[in-house]
Amino acid sequence: MTLRVSIVGLGKMGLSHLAIANGLNCFKVNAIVDKQKLTKHFISRYFNVYDEIEKLDLRKTDAVIISTPNFSHFAIVKYFLKNDIHVFVEKPLTINHSQSEELKDLASQKDLTNQVGYVNRFNPIFIRAKNLITQGAIGNIASYENMMYGNVVSSGKSSSWRNDISKGGGCLFDYGSHCIDLCVFFFGNIKTVSESKLGSIHSVSADDYVNSNFSHDNGVEGRLDVNWCKPDYRKAFNELIIKGDQGELRVNKQQIKVTTSIDSANLGIKSGTNEIFVTDDIQNTEFYLRGEDFSEQLIEFGNSIKGATPSNNSADFESSSHVDFIINQIRSRND
Amino acid sequence: MSILSSIKFEVEMTELILGDNQFLGVNHRSEELGRQNSSKFGDKSQIFSFLTECKDLGISSFMFTTHEKILPVLEDIGRSKQFEHYSLYPCLPYAHKYADSVTENGVLKTVTQFSYSNLFSFMCNGVSGLLTGNAKYIMKSLVDAELEKIPSHLLKCVYLQNLVTDLLLGLGMEDLLLEFAEHITGKYGSEVGFVTMNYPLLCDRLAKAAPNFPYRICTNINKNGFRMNPTKENVLSTLKHDSNHVTAMSIFASGSLQPEEAIKFISSTSGLDACLFGSSQIKNIKTNISFFKKYLS
Prior knowledge:
The structure holds 2 protein chains of 2 kinds.
Chain A lengths: L2 E6 L3 H12 L3 E7 L3 H7 L5 E2 L12 E4 L6 H10 L3 E4 L7 H14 L3 E3 L7 H11 L6 E9 L22 H16 L2 E10 L9 E8 L4 E7 L9 E8 L2 E6 L2 E6 L11 E6 L14 H14 L11 H16 L3
Helix pairs in contact in A: 3-4, 4-8, 6-8
Chain B lengths: L2 H5 L7 E4 L2 H4 L6 H10 L3 H13 L4 E5 L5 H9 L7 E6 L2 H19 L5 H14 L2 H13 L9 E4 L1 H10 L2 H15 L2 E6 L2 H11 L6 E5 L11 H10 L3 E5 L9 H9 L6 E4 L4 H15 L1
Parallel strand pairs in B: 1-8, 2-3, 3-4, 4-5, 5-6, 6-7, 7-8
């Protein structure tokens, strides 16, 4: 069965999702919704393009992939859920936790597939790291640091919505949501948020860095450090340093370094220092654009609609609503 | 003359090509190692010396992205007598500068920002392209701006970078791939190539869009099957029957293969015409060349 999917929003992420979905056998892209005139000229030779979601023929749409500016997610997701369409939406789910809760309840009530683009959950190295710590590779987990740095904003001149907090811009909604989701993916829900600090370096109306401390339901303590104004980072770099009572595990998108006193053939680790690289776990994909994880998350979305049991990796509206709750907490506790 | 063609082995592969990852701090296995390497090549004279040493070892071809760190070195190469038989393989565009800029400034500002050095041509092609929504004109303007600083007499083949090739492939815009090819061959008289992570799909689509159209391919080929999509078997079987010029990249599967086993595999793979690799250490380059000599002979 080929799923008829429409792409809503054709910025950088939307274009990427369009190309991947169109390159995968399980989807047939039947329409695109985007307001920009330039986009319409460019793309209308290849696809049906509409400027409003209401113009889409919902009888010909099984699912949508939404990559519009963050502030618009709520209304758009709600429209499609109400019309019984399966939804994949870019992160964060919404910019307001109460709106995310409403969408979570609606998706559950309608029994529709709902997924948020927390792509790190499909990275084989992050999955391997999660399995290692869950299965005791460094003993009982005590604490962690989660850092994400990049060079997204280098001046205050930008007019993009990404640099306007009222539209869901800023590094907390962008880098921060990815990091918080990864904390939740690894350690479960967060109970309390403390010592939060948000600030601007270049942006005029958005945050460029975030620090915060987390205490999880299971007692693990964590520290978040995010900054997207670091010129020495060629691209986004996200690393977690996790401390257990038997050792330490460092993980970024490419590699894991485990230093432990535990020897476990099952886990594939020896007492001492172990290094695991992304290239050690070969995972080819049907159509590759910018990383296997970007393709795999859409394949998972398609499979879920077709009735496959979702893997433990996928970020549904429930876990993503929790991320939005934490984002709201950080902002309200910013001293 | 390349090291292998000079030795005249009874093999299909004829050319070793140096890549630029070590100069730019790109390491797919470890970002930390990548950053360390990048600091080793802080100025253009260090990159120029490294290219000279590799050339003296017999690697007379260089494939590179149009990164601001590489472009000044190319001007020196273009002027140098000792590089007069050298081959340059630019790979367009250097994607990160566009991706970051599109995120921060939007498409329109990005197009204008990166075409400023070629203003007249941009005014003629780019603006009319924007007004009519014609992507082909925009593409040509960006290509011309990218190639402006590359010595034309050393230009052998212009490649389209995999992010753009695979984006257009995914979008079903093979006509733009062909338009790029016609622009390169028509205006610059060089060959045209595509870097891709979806080699079998690209071959299939291009064969349907333009049968008998000649182009080069550069794609991942390695013993581990790393980023050989959709499967290693599918890629190797396409390679066997492909009459186009194919260059293998990621032959060490981003450092997870030992050089000898990697080169042994590549040397026994049929259908390959060239091999792209790099290293931040000259001693590694020498070792790799010795393995090629051993297994190709």
